[in-house]
TrEMBL record:
Compartment(s) where it occurs, according to its Swiss-Prot or TrEMBL record: Cytoplasm
Full protein name: phosphoenolpyruvate--protein phosphotransferase
InterPro entries: GAF (IPR003018), GAF-like_dom_sf (IPR029016), PEP-util_enz_mobile_dom (IPR008279), PEP-utilizing_PTS_enzyme (IPR050499), PEP_util_C (IPR000121), PEP_util_CS (IPR023151), Phosphohistidine_dom_sf (IPR036637), PTS_EI-like (IPR006318)
Record's catalysed reaction(s): L-histidyl-[protein] + phosphoenolpyruvate = N(pros)-phospho-L-histidyl-[protein] + pyruvate
Entry's Gene Ontology cellular component terms: cytoplasm
PANTHER family assigned: PHOSPHOENOLPYRUVATE-DEPENDENT PHOSPHOTRANSFERASE SYSTEM, PHOSPHOENOLPYRUVATE-PROTEIN PHOSPHOTRANSFERASE
Similarity comment: Belongs to the PEP-utilizing enzyme family.
Keyword set, alphabetical order: Cytoplasm, Kinase, Magnesium, Metal-binding, Phosphotransferase system, Sugar transport, Transferase, Transport
Keyword Magnesium: yes
SMART domains: GAF
Amino acid sequence: MLVTLQRIVETVNKSPDFNLALKAMVSQVREALETDSCSVFLADDESQQFVMAASDGLSTHKNEPLRVDFGEGIISLAAQREEPLNIADASQHPANKKITQTNESEYRGLLAAPIIHRRRVLGIIVVHQSQARSFTREEEAFVVTLAAQLSVVIAHASAKGLLANENSPWIHSLQGLPGSPGVAIGDAFVARPEVSLKEVSPQRTDRPQHEVRKFRQAVARTRADLKKLSERMLGQVPDDTLAIFDVYQGMLDAASLGNAVESMINEGWRAQTALKHVVEQFVDQFEALDDSYLRERATDVRDIGQRVLMHLQQRQRKPRQFPTDGILIAEEVTASMLAELPQDDIAGIISLNGSNNSHAAIMARSMGIPAVLGIDDIELHFFTEKKLIVDGYTGEIYINPPPQVREQYRHLAEEEEELKLIVAEHAHLPAETQDGQRVSLHLNLGLDVKQPHLANLNIDGIGLYRSEIPFMMRDQLPTEDEQVEMYKEVLDHFPDKPVVMRTLDVGGDKPLPYLPLKEDNPFLGWRGIRLTLDHPEIFLVQVRAMLRASIGRTNLRILLPMVTSISEVEEASRLIKQAYFEVAEEQGCAVGVNLIQPQLGVMIEVPAIIYQLSALANKVDFFSVGSNDLTQYLLAVDRNNRRVAHLYDAYHPAVLASLDDIARRCEELGKPVSVCGELAGDPGGALLLVAMGYRQLSMNSYNIDRVRWILRNVRSATLQVMLAKALQARHPEQIRKMIANKMESMGLGGFVRAGK
């Protein structure tokens, strides 16, 4: 039976046509079980019916697809109970419904097994026999196993639109992740890279100096390309977004990719081979990260590597005509790819890979281009010559939509533009509710800060500066002097505003190339404060650099990540004081005058620390909630694991209850507390956090003015009503629906869906 089962599954997987695959499958199952009929019914959620997709043995008189309403017949009973039904004589079963237009009356024995994917019933496999007998346990196990394996195939086929045909009432859509809000209608433009690092095969050289020269020439040409792209985007995107190209340039520096590539060339490898090896090492390193923002830097490194490779291979870009109102689609849409295309013609973006932290998503938001990312199991060629609608709010993509749907979205797009203008007009105003409750809006930073736009952004400070990126983009630890310059740059850009610098947050899930380690479960391993306390020489150098950078300034705050115990805070505090007095003595600073001892804070991201806030209160100056990791640890979900990522939800009642408890405890203790995770920049999340009592929210630059406008249009009493309902809810979807309905009633629906 196992060999037969494997053969059937292989037939389905290899078939070029899904409907033919189903027809072949039912025939093979009928033959394998020596039964009289095998059929597959698929769920049509729109019409609330099960539709017969293929059958061998069950025929219809009118030659039309057989449909069974949800809730009727044994088929629906198997779906409702989500378990197989093995019935000796179906004609006598109370749930049986006679279907007159078929030959079903010829059969007695029935076995129905639901096809379930991620808790959703996609269809039913039904096996009939004329004899009135129950199927054997082996036969039942065979069909149930086949249904489980078929579920993935059907889910993928549904995503690709293979279940629809010209007679189908379904409007075909794909579901991805919202990357940039807005709606777009246009023709698909599929983009593919000119070269691929994957295609480079390892080759040796006996002329390393020649290869080094070729590599340096390719890097120089890549730098020139990036400079042109940056100049082309000047004035079309804000300066903070334009700084992405400075980051690209930084990746080409000797301290980043350059030295590592040349070192490998000198070991006797060709430039292309060395480039492939080094870039893939960096990519693997970034893709293994827990922090979604840092993880997306893998795309940037790969993009830079392939640009250098193109010049090494002396390839020329082949210009293609981009359609007016085109939808750009690629495996990984990159910032440089966007810059190469005519800006006025890009209506929307679809990136099969990536998240809302990718540089493509950041650029899309700054350019006001709707984007959807992270489309599972769809190949690029599927989009060729398709008319598309991109909904950047819901993450939906409509394929060849009917005229009435296109007209509806055209109207929504016009309303979108009106709302953007309204938000921009109020960007200079303070963030406060209608009854005067002020909220401090802070910025999350992680890369180059040479961004004049940031100095003019109406923010109250930097809520989180990720200090680990310079460590990760090098082949050795940055020196103390190098770190001093980096931190000075950040502090000087915001001289009158607090800058919260998180100490080095690396480890098992964020490995440094020069400090390799492998762990079975890096998220629960040697990372954050655990690693730096085990390496005080690294911690002390970083803290000394921060303190030296703060001489003559008063805006430095230091934040400790991944804290689990009081002893960790005590030891870190001791080292910080040691560094403080060392720097004061070495630099000739007057203690407390031109060298201020910075405020010390702790990240609340490990649930254990929630129960130690009282003991910590007299040891730190402030708390900062890392809602992303806190959610992950509370729910025991690795959000990078596709099998369980759907369980990660910041609106989970347990997460909201914990956040509410933290806010109340911090108020009782008289300690400031902020939130610097993704929830702070989410419109609904920001409202709930303010209702809980959080008065400092830190987010990316795109969400600052949106959250400001929302807060200026609500009253504190309304927020308290929303919070009470959210804390009473049992499911995340109940909370989302409540928020959406409330925002609609307040005229703020345009922040949670398309339109105004």
